[in-house]
Automatic annotation (TrEMBL):
Organism: Echeneis naucrates
Catalytic activities: 3-demethylubiquinone-10 + NADPH + 2 H(+) = 3-demethylubiquinol-10 + NADP(+); 3-demethylubiquinone-10 + NADH + 2 H(+) = 3-demethylubiquinol-10 + NAD(+); a 3-demethylubiquinone + NADH + 2 H(+) = a 3-demethylubiquinol + NAD(+); a 3-demethylubiquinone + NADPH + 2 H(+) = a 3-demethylubiquinol + NADP(+)
Protein family per UniProt: Belongs to the zinc-containing alcohol dehydrogenase family. Quinone oxidoreductase subfamily.
Main location: mitochondrion
Gene behind this protein: rtn4ip1
Protein keywords: Membrane, Mitochondrion, Mitochondrion outer membrane, NADP, Neurogenesis, Nucleotide-binding, Oxidoreductase, Transit peptide, Ubiquinone biosynthesis
The protein, known as: NAD(P)H oxidoreductase RTN4IP1, mitochondrial
Amino acid sequence: QQQPSQSVQLQQASCHVCFDRQHLTTRRLFSSSSRCMTVMPAWVIDKYGSNDALRFTKNASFPVINYPNEVIVKVFAAGLNPMDVSMRGGYGAATLSRKRDPLNIKQSGSEFPLILGRDVSGVIMECGLDVKYFRESDEVWAAIPPWKQGSLAEFVVLSANEVSHKPRSLTHTEAAAIPYVATTAWSALVNTGGLSKDNCTKKRILILGGSGGVGTFAIQMLKAWGAHVTVTCTQNAEHFVRGLGADHVVDYTAGPVEEPLTTLEKFDLILDNVGGDTERWALTLLKPWSGAKYITLITPFLQNMDRLGIADGMMQTAATVATKALKNLARGVHYRWGFFAPSGPALDEIREMVDAGQIRAVVEETFKFSQVPQAFNKLEKGHARGKTVVEISKGGDDCAL
């Protein structure tokens, strides 16, 4: 049989290209080694519960680019946070499901199988058509919003504005320890607290619960900006937080922690990572009528939504925060809630501080990809001094199972 002429072959190839472009504008799969990938290894949960809910699969759905500003990242390391343990148990399920499906089109439980993991460090494997700031093979890090599939997988898809170039001075394992706690602290201290490198000099800051992930980052950032930082932690962690730059340390296990704190000079800002009973006395430690702020990261926002539903939960939340804010405003201090907010631009600034030697990664323990349940067990014990990181793959190699 006679082969088609060269011009006919070119015409046929052109038609195939046109069809492929039309087909791939909405769902573009990353192609590796000239084969389209549809599945990948990942740790998932199929229901909310304890560690028993974690399941390893090699058939998790491969992420696809659905919007032109998205990127697919090959995950080298994933950082774990207390939020992952809470999400595994169903915390925030009502609100996060509504965020994933605003029009409520999908059936209940459509978030499963759910991939946890809020921190990622890796390499960009594919860029959407509108992505200009990144290219394939760029090393990046990011904090993943809790309504998106997480980093305990070989690949993850993110918006380009959530991603930043990874600090050159850090390995992927070290880099995965920073983004989620960094963007949480940045959102609380900068966006809500109004702090910056230009106005922080000699400000007195109190961090309640300073040896965890957010605390260890906040200490370093505030010290780099010239603040005076007081921290509460256990006596065992005192040397650790002083090594990060804390000026004054109070042991909260030695008795009522408010007693030694009330003897100190008043503070310009308090960052509360503890919650509970601390609100009762912490606001009295602020300088009144000076613009001083108390910012707590322990809020009932998602809990209210889970318990009361979206509408009633939002009303209850608004009433609670308004009442507390007005009550404390009468005392001359500002009461605020702090929230995580994903931000590539914030990570850009944090990267510069890391590469300048002002902030270091604090990794307490690393686990292999096959040890994710053990990593969660470690996280659940609490009293962390730094971050728990899972190494998903080594460089460009296959998953480190």
